[in-house]
Amino acid sequence: MPEPCQNCGAELYAGQQFCRRCGAPVRAESPPPGEAPTRLFPEGAQTFAAAPAAGTSRLGGGHTDSVSRQQPTAYQPPLAAYQQTSPLPAAPPARRRRRGAWLAALLVVFVLGAGLASGAAYVWWRATRQHVVIRTNTGGVPPAPAAPAAPGVPGVPADLGDRIKEALKGAGVPLPLDESGAVVSGATTVLTRTYELGDDAAFAVHAVRGSVTVTGGDGEAVVVKITKHGGSAAERGGARVLESKTDEGVTLVTAPGPADAVSVSYEISVPRGLRRLEVAADRGDVRVSGFAGAVVSEVGTGEVEFRDVSGEVRSKLIKGSTRVFQGGAEREGSQQFSVVRGDIEATFADDANADLKAETLDGDIEVDAGFGLRVEKAPAGRRLAGRLGEGGEGLYFKVTNGDVRLKK
Questions:
Q1: Residue 31 and residue 33: Cα distance in Å, rounded?
Q2: pTM of the model
Q3: What confidence category does residue 226 fall into, taking pLDDT thresholds of 50, 70 and 90?
């Protein structure tokens, strides 16, 4: 039979150590082994059933909910408590390292150092060679300075300009031709120069706008007559002729002037046996006659003529016509004549000897019946090959757009 609690009279069960209602101990002796004590809390007291669900872990705070859903515990507050309410400030971007900055700084330091060093060297040089005197004048208008010695810089030799010119001439640098002896009359300016050259030397002339006429003779010197046509005397003076002398020969070049109205022409007499002759013209006519040496001719626009030239010839013409006159003299080298746009006309003496070739890419070849040569069709244009007389050094004529005429 159950016993009542001695404190509150609540009904007790066997083995109960404390009253479930008031919590008073039932007896002092230890409970039987294996039985758990119970306690009855007063009405209104919070029990574990009313508290948040407790876990079954021995460490406390555990629970038996699904592991996939995390519940707040006494040691881990809900995540909502730490929910971010404002965006965190963005971290400043990492500063990019500017490549080459140190190299640029080093270069600037080097340039400044070089400038300072050169400036210091110049100051030292000036200090060791002359004295600088500074004078002040407080009496009104300063006096006119004395005229410095030529060429205008103290301490510079008066003949420095001439010495520089001689050095440049010795190195073969083209320099303006001295025109102090030129003859000026009307619309022309004429000057003449003579050059003593050996047989192994070469003479070259390049005209920009004007003709070039070369004649071989028995003399031993090269005589050049330069004529400037058109414009005023000042404009003709601006169309300079450059001269270059070396151990190999002499070269004359027309420097482009500011006025297109001025043309410069050359009349040249050369020794017949001079080793080499070079003639070039941008716009102008070129004529070579009675010459036995090698000739190289390049013309842009104009007319080219070779008469009784027995040496080796290489002639190129862009636009115009080329005429060749071959006598009976024996030639000492092959000759080639080419025209890009224009014609070639060759006239031969009855006793001329040569191995002849002619070719056109867009044109025709006309040959006199007395030559006994036949023109053939080529995949492009016409061609001819044969022998004149007993044969000899080759003659080659080539036209890209034009005709070739062979006459006696």
A1: 6
A2: 0.59
A3: very high
